[in-house]
Amino acid sequence: MDEALSDSLPGFFARTRLEVSDGNRSMTMTDFLATASSGRRTQQERSDTMRALLLQATIELLYERGYSRLTTLDVAKYAQVSRGALTHHFAHKEDLVVEAISWQLRSASDELEEFVANIEAGPLDTDRIIDHLWEMLSDRLFHITMEYLPEARNNTPFRERLMPVAAVFHAALDRIWLHLSRTSGLSAERAQTILNATMCLMRGMVAQQILRNDESYYEDLLQYWRDLLRREIAQAATSENIKRKKDR
């Protein structure tokens, strides 16, 4: 069971990290399922495995079928567990979906934190930032977001449960514009605006992919944005140099 599901993990989810119950261990979902499928396990380890399988199955089915067509019975079948085992962990569909989204966004946040740590160690590379954000958003992340946003718009309790989850992801994004501000000469406010505009552009591009499958079209947009951002930073650097000369 675990091995089959582990083999089906797409790239992003195979790399994502899962916090296990004792709070002291973190491993990728692929490693977690591989560990869980070998040797004797404690009751808590079996429970962790069950939750991991259910969260993975929920994310997969959100992507494949959408929120409105997602049922807990389908999740149980996909995870190859009983309906009773699912309801033992998650009493309602919303509980399951909120936890799965939380796991997905925590995983994306962890990956962003790792990315920022890497780029902070070297010179500013805005092309790399744009490419990483596009890879992250277009690799299912925003496709899945689009599935549950309509429900969040009309379901206030559901929306309120998701807001703190989304805040964790946005906090990780904040580190990117802080890095951009520190290394480019842009003000913090301007860097944040650029990052927000970048995210809005990419969300729109992902949404457009539903009806337009044209890789060169999206690459042209990304290249335009790369060039635009480089020009913006070059202008900021020039302005900063002029200001320093005047202040001498």
UniProtKB/TrEMBL annotation:
<dbReference type="GO" id="GO:0000976">
    <property type="term" value="F:transcription cis-regulatory region binding"/>
</dbReference>
<dbReference type="Pfam" id="PF00440">
    <property type="entry name" value="TetR_N"/>
</dbReference>
<dbReference type="InterPro" id="IPR009057">
    <property type="entry name" value="Homeodomain-like_sf"/>
</dbReference>
<dbReference type="InterPro" id="IPR050109">
    <property type="entry name" value="HTH-type_TetR-like_transc_reg"/>
</dbReference>
<protein>
    <submittedName>
        <fullName>TetR/AcrR family transcriptional regulator</fullName>
    </submittedName>
</protein>
<dbReference type="GO" id="GO:0003700">
    <property type="term" value="F:DNA-binding transcription factor activity"/>
</dbReference>
<feature type="DNA-binding region" description="H-T-H motif">
    <location>
        <begin position="71"/>
        <end position="90"/>
    </location>
</feature>
<keyword id="KW-0238">DNA-binding</keyword>
<dbReference type="InterPro" id="IPR001647">
    <property type="entry name" value="HTH_TetR"/>
</dbReference>
<feature type="domain" description="HTH tetR-type">
    <location>
        <begin position="48"/>
        <end position="108"/>
    </location>
</feature>
<keyword id="KW-0805">Transcription regulation</keyword>
<keyword id="KW-0804">Transcription</keyword>
